[in-house]
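Q: Convert this sequence to structure tokens.
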Amino acid sequence: MIIRAILLLLVCTNLGVAAWWLWHRDAIAVPLPGSEAGVASIQLLGEVGAPPVPMVPVTVASPTAQISAPACISLGPFGTPAALRQAMTTLTPHAGSIQYREVIATELRGYRVFMPPAADGSGALEVARALTARGVRDYYVVTAGEQANTVSLGIFRDMENAEKRREQLAGLGFNAVLEPRTEQVRQWWIDLSVAADFRWQSVLGEIALTVQDVACR
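A:
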């Protein structure tokens, strides 16, 4: 019974498909109008031969363009990279061009008073005993390095105090030497072009710097 029903269903399905192929019609495509009545159609500029729209250049003003008569200066020295970075950041908005450079400089670190070097260590000890005999207690015998066999009598920040120490020893009969203490250090300078009436103190403050006029590149 079930098999008979399935066969009947298949026969009906095949008859339906055959009938659809015999009597169906393809749909006719109706083209849409290019535009509504009374409304102009859209056309590309290239289709109607219209000239292209010109590109307008945009000029970005630079700090250099804002300085009509620049003056070129070198400002420094800056003793640390941190001080250099802060000054560069502050000066850049006011400069047409700006760059920094590093130099090795000899920097004064104070003054040294000492007895001249003896021929050897024994001679330096004799000088020390002579100082002690005259009541001088504040000294140091240098036994190594460039100042070996000298007797150091003090290191001073100010020239005036160093002179007083040398004169004190001269009064006791000792021919002490006074010389500056120097050290090789790194320093940085900033080279920039600015307006002729620019005052760097107005942006950096009243700090100890040297300004040198340089030729503009």
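The radius of gyration is 48 Å.
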